[in-house]
Amino acid sequence: MPTGKVKWFSLEKGFGFIESDEGEDVYLAATALPEGVTTVKPGTKLEFGVADGRRGPQALSVRVIEAPTSLAASSRAATDDLASIIEDSIKILDRVGNNIRRGKYPTTVEAQRLGKVLRGIAQQIEDNA
Description:
Elements: E1 3-10, E2 15-20, E3 25-29, E4 45-53, E5 56-66, H1 79-101, H2 108-127
Antiparallel strand pairs: 1-2, 1-4, 2-3, 4-5
Helix pairs in contact: 1-2
């Protein structure tokens, strides 16, 4: 199986990219992350399968090999960044709530993405408490 390191990953967008050891950029969807993993940090070493997607190679069956050394132990996440993420999440939840009031529930994909975002925010808050 190919290996590589996370180039960047956005929990909010639900995707990112891996730079494979061969130098190729590989699309990483949040749904390809292992069970219980909601986000990955840049530099995280991954092992993954590859399939041809609409826009090029896409990672499947991702396994975390080695997480980068955490700086969280020595510093907290930027408060402005975390506050912005929480405020954006409130807007998303407000929109979902209004849609549910009108009888329109989120699709399975939207619900899974929202769940991952909320779990990621909770993890950030717990890690920085």
